[in-house]
Specification:
Blueprint: H1 3-9, E1 17-20, H2 24-36, H3 54-67, E2 72-75, H4 92-104
Parallel strand pairs: 1-2
Length: 106
């Protein structure tokens, strides 16, 4: 692989990406990808619940329909729960919600 091939490998022009997760790493990835396209491009914001199996499917279908495809997927939805500062005080309900989000989100 020569230098030109490597440069083309990382060229994001014309690529469509979907980022799940709007905080932390997900937000940073979305901002980085948007910055890489600062010269132009189009974006849509779609709110979905990644713990509902049909929602990520509809998100991908919408990206394909409105933006013409899907080339990059950053699946970063997840969380640590409302009581991250003191896990000992986390109730069973909070634990179950965080566990479900981190294990089963699509």
């Amino acid at each position: 692989m020569n230098g030109r091939d490597i440069q083309n490998l990382f060229d994001l022009g014309g690529r469509v990406d979907v980022v799940s997760g709007g905080n932390g790493i997900g937000r940073a990835c979305a901002l980085m990808l948007a910055g890489a396209r600062a010269a132009g491009g189009r974006a849509i914001a779609v709110v979905r619940n990644v713990t509902v199996a049909a929602d990520p499917v509809s998100l991908v279908k919408r990206a394909v329909a409105e933006l013409g495809g899907l080339h990059i997927l950053v699946n970063d939805a997840g969380g640590g729960g409302a009581r991250r500062e003191n896990p000992v005080r986390t109730g069973v309900e909070d634990f179950a919600r965080v566990f479900e989000l981190n294990l089963f989100s699509a």
